[in-house]
Amino acid sequence: MAATSRKVAVVGVALSDCGRIDGRTPYSLLAQAARRALADSGLDRSAVDGFGSAGLGLLAPAEAAEYLGIRPRWVDSTSVGGASWEVMAAHAADAIAAGHARAVLLAYGSTARADIRAGRRTAGLSFGGGGPLQFEAPYGHTLIAKYAMAARRHMHEYGTTLEQLASVAVQARAHAAANPEAMYRAPITVDEVLSGPMVADPFTKLHCCVRSDGGCAVLLAGEEFLPDTAKPPAWILGTGEYVSHTAMSSWEDFTVSPAAVSGRLAFERAGLAPAEMDIAEVYDAFTHMTLVTLEDLGFCAKGEGGAFVAEGRIGPGGELPVNTDGGGLSACHPGMRGLFLLVEAVRQLRGEAGGHQVRLPGGGPPRLAVACGTGGWFCSSGTVVLGRD
């Protein structure tokens, strides 16, 4: 195989209609986002020779590719929960750099909210009772219970407070307030978060992500396509991935997420440090996830996340704006949110985020961003560092 050294960029991003979407299928939302991402890139569908998807059908991504009418020669269906998309983006960037593909489309669609309302499915309390989970499921060890236990351990070890966790939700909502695509935009207070109905101690309702419908798509391409693209590139500078455990009994330290490894790898490969990032888009199914992921990515020391997120530091105008669209806590969370993190990061780097656009002191958009997806209950992580010219 001939060695290549192609640079790889994200050249197209888009969301489908998101939020409360009745009467649509996951495939139609995936296709809507894919069409919009191609239009955003300015490239023709014929340029796409790679495709990645997960979460749909029995033969992902074959079923989704057939629905889109494409016949990719490079495919990926890595399924590690919400981190799948950052991991697939890493794989796609490697494939393009090596010459195995020219342009790779990643696409996702979900009607998680609409399906429950229509009675087509019930809320999933866990991922099942087979394999290693058979030793935990009989004791009512639900998905949210695992995160709640991890949050309580962090509070015990480091003195993290409920108010600090609640401030994460408040700041996410502050970002969402300026985003017309966000599902919930009305401001909330720490007291409102703390006084809400309990879901899994210590998480009240507003500590938890919203349930929504929606789809999104991201198109990555080699540098030779840049003269033909419609928008400035968001370059893939470094990536990392890591899987740590499945059973809680195999999780050595409940206060450390796999982002501690995936983040370190991504920053090392990018030749950059966390302190150089202008924004961070991280998976936030629960408030505690944001806090711990920021620690493990290296934005603060282990145990200092509570103090780091306090006093508006991650909100609009803060020193590190986090989840600038409102995140899964306020904007949207249709099951597997990892791809949405990449869409928002690219929009911010381009200066296309509208009312919730982050501006550097000189007035320009961010130059560097990190997107970090999480899967399972901190079981897997994928991190992507992006930058603009």
TrEMBL record:
A Pfam entry, by short name: Thiolase_C_1
Domain Thiolase C-terminal: 240-388
Gene3D superfamilies reported in the protein's UniProt record: 3.40.47.10
Highest taxon above the source species: Bacteria
Name the record gives this protein: Acetyl-CoA acetyltransferase
Organism: Streptomyces amakusaensis
